Amino acid sequence: MSFSKEIREKIYQFAKEQSQHYLEEAEMTYLEKLRRKTGETKSKVTAKLAKLKNRSERALEAQNDMILYMSDYMNDLIAEGYSEQEAFKRAKEELRFRSETAKSADLQERFTEYYLNLNPADYEAVGLFYAGFLFFGIAIGTLTGFLGSGGRAMFLAGGWIDTLIGTAVGITVGIALGLISNAIISLKKRH
Fold first, then answer.
1. Which residues contact 164 (CB under 8 A, 6 or more apart)?
2. C-alpha angle 49-52-53 in degrees, rounded to nearest 5
3. Per the confidence metrics, is the pTM higher than 0.70?
4. Are 46 and 27 in contact (CB under 8 A)?
5. Which spans are transmembrane here (predicted)?
6. pLDDT tens for each residue of 93-119
C-alpha cells in the first residue's frame, strides 16, 4: 500500500528520531553510561554522538529498518480498518523507544528526584562557604607565618618561607572548613 506524501515524511522523521534512541542505548560505552548515570555533560555527549551517528551507515540502516517495519505495521492496521492518520498515530506510539530495564527505571527515578529537589541556593551557599573559609584561611595563615618569621625585617632574609608555609596551612584549613560546611548543608537538606 502506498501512503500519502505527508505520512511518508512523518514516518521518515519519526524513524530518524527513534532509531537514534535505539542506537544510543546499544552503542554506549561504559564511560558514556557512567556519565549519563551521574548526570555529567549528558546533553553535550549525546549531541556530539548524535552528529556522528546520524552520518554512520549503521544509523541509516537502522532508520531504513524502522521505516519498513513501521510501514508494514501501518498496513496491517489499515487492513484492520484504521485510517491512515490513525494507523500512523498508533504505530508511532507502539514503536516509540522506551528503555524498560530495571536499571533505567531506577536511574530515571533518581534523576527525577534529584532535579525535583535541586536548589541552586544550596550550591551557592556551599561555594560561598568554600570561598569565605579559603580567604579567611589564607589571610590568617599568611599573617601568622609573616609575624612568626619575624615580620618585615626578616621576610627577605628567609622569613618568606615561614609566610609561604603559613599560607599553605591556611589554604588547607580553609578547604577543610569548606568541606565541613558542605557536609552540614547536605545533612540538613536530607532532613
1. 145
2. 80
3. no
4. no
5. 128-148, 160-185
6. 887 766 556 666 666 677 667 666 667
